[in-house]
Design brief:
This protein is an alpha+beta fold and about 325 residues long. The protein contains eight helices and 16 strands. Bound molecules: biotin (BTN). Biotin (BTN) binds near residues 89, 132, 174, 175 and 187.
Length: about 325
């Protein structure tokens, strides 16, 4: 008996299946069955275990090794997919395994040491958030790779609209905002030679049904579920994202710039048209965000002088000079 057979067995009934029955039927010990059950629980399946009754599949996880494999099989972008029951960081995993993997989609239900931009951490909860990384090998010059964060941001806004019927915004360069609070973040990393990208890893964390945030995060973080009445599925959201991203990514590879989406990037920008702070270490400078250009840079004016930001930390400047 393998894990898949056990899952099929549990899926076939709403009732409890006893450990003794499974043990006799498949000729393996009850301890071995418990190990399979535990592995399925780690994969995100909600399995109830009741003494003298046995095991019952309460709810099928929306995301699993099978569903990721099916998604990858339908996608033109990926050679392979991994679903990890738990991992420190899908980006770190992708980078460590890059030599062994083709173009890959790595998804987890439980990321234990997620990383954000600028050395920050990314917190997620096993049941309610979606964390994944795409390991890709675009034939582009390294200086173009940062644009992929914008491509991924737009794909995520579209996926959120399609799946959750919600409007979201992009806070340049890598945050997705819903009703003023951060719902998702993107971390793009790269390994390259002087003139060619070896690989990029685009990692996204999104709070889908997350209910509770720490006191520190509550004022600035949110989840999709907090703003929609739609029934949300992490798998369906991921499917929408991959479909949108595949399309935009292929167009981007043809042109090597963002002219084809620059209008959308400006329309969805949380910053464009606003007075902002540019934060550099401990210092902050006041600026006005004019627009995003076709290289994905934020064009600002500082004391009337135009400047293009291609990297950095910015925040909307509120009336009283506080950071948002
Ligand atoms: C940020 O907001 O600064 C970016 C957050 C990116 C989080 C995602 S979750 C999946 C992938 N793995 C990581 O360790 N980080 C990214």
């Amino acid at each position: 008996m393998n894990r898949q057979q056990l899952l099929s067995h549990l899926l076939a009934t709403d009732d409890y299946v006893s450990g003794e029955y499974l043990s006799n039927r498949y000729g393996i010990s009850r301890q071995a069955i418990w190990k399979h059950v535990k592995a399925l629980i780690d994969e995100g399946y909600h399995i109830e275990s009741v003494r003298r009754k046995g095991y019952r599949l309460v709810e099928q996880s929306d995301i699993s090794q099978n569903s990721v494999a099916q998604l990858v099989a339908r996608s033109p972008l990926f050679d392979e997919g991994c679903f990890l029951a738990a991992v420190t960081s899908t980006n770190s995993f992708a980078k460590k395994q890059a030599a062994q993997l083709g173009n890959a989609l790595i998804v987890t239900a439980n990321q234990t040491a997620g990383r954000g931009r600028l050395g920050r951490s990314w917190l997620s909860d096993a049941g309610g958030s979606l964390c994944f990384s795409m390991l890709l090998r675009p034939a582009i010059a390294p200086y173009l790779a940062a644009m992929l964060t914008q491509v991924a941001g737009l794909a995520m806004c579209r996926a959120i609209r399609l799946h959750a019927a919600l409007k979201s915004e992009i806070k340049w360069p890598n945050d997705i905002i819903c009703n003023g609070k951060k719902v998702a973040g993107i971390l793009t990393e790269m390994a390259s030679e002087m003139n060619a990208v070896e690989y990029v890893v685009i990692g996204i964390g999104i709070n889908v049904t997350t209910q509770h945030f720490s006191d520190e995060l509550a004022p600035i973080a949110t989840s999709l579920a907090a703003h929609t009445k739609q029934k949300l599925s992490r798998l369906a959201l991921l499917e929408h994202f991959i479909a949108q991203f595949s399309d935009l990514y292929q167009q981007f590879l043809k042109t090597g710039d963002l002219a084809f989406i620059v209008d959308d990037l400006n329309r969805l920008s949380q910053l464009v048209g606003k007075d902002i702070w540019i934060i550099d270490n401990q210092e902050r400078r006041s600026a006005h965000a004019k627009h995003i250009n076709q290289r994905g840079e934020l064009v600002v004016t500082i004391d009337g002088v135009e400047q293009n930001l291609y990297y950095g930390e910015v925040s909307v400047r509120l009336d009283h000079g506080e950071n948002s």
